[in-house]
Design goal:
The chain is α+β, with helices and mostly antiparallel strands. Helix content is 33%, strand content 36%. The protein contains 6 helices and 7 strands; from the N terminus they run αβββαββαααββα. Strands 1, 2, 3, 4, 5, 6 and 7 form a 7-stranded antiparallel β-sheet that branches.
Length: 148
């Protein structure tokens, strides 16, 4: 029995709001693994905003690619992991895109407060876009159904 998700299921799962773990390799050292907010639309690119001078940005710039993993943390467990090349490293953050990202992860009032308190990110962050090239998935719901 395969636990792999269909292409439509994996893209829908990735498009849902999850806090992701972003991974970037490092020559001769361990990978950097950090939680991030992100956006994704089926068939599109993964978008991450991060500090221009952060370790994350420097490693992404050097590697030219990164991986992202999202999961459901309650049974039945599911995960999607994507890896691919950076297709855009934009030295700016679009205010509307940043606003949409905050509202994706925070309740409206909290999002507004967060955006007001972190306006400096409009000039200190960068936008990174990655095209998923390799997918790894598992959906344990089918496993649980088969044996219940």
């Amino acid at each position: 029995m395969s636990l792999a998700m269909s292409a439509a299921d994996r893209e829908a799962f990735l498009a849902a709001a999850h806090v992701a773990v972003l991974g970037i390799g490092a020559p001769g050292g361990p990978p950097l693994l950090v939680p991030v907010w992100y956006t994704y639309r089926p068939g599109g690119e993964v978008t991450v905003l991060t500090g221009r001078e952060s370790v994350k940005a420097r490693r992404i710039r050097a590697a030219g690619r990164f991986a992202l993993c999202v999961q459901r943390e309650t049974a039945p467990y599911r995960y999607v992991s994507v890896e691919g090349p950076v297709v855009a490293f934009e030295d700016r953050v679009d205010a509307a895109e940043r606003t949409a990202l905050a509202h994706r992860y925070l309740p409206p009032e909290t999002a507004r407060a967060y955006l007001a308190a972190t306006t400096d990110q409009l000039s200190t962050d960068v936008t990174v876009r990655m095209r998923p090239a390799r997918w790894r998935t598992a959906d344990f719901a089918s496993f649980a159904t088969a044996f219940s």
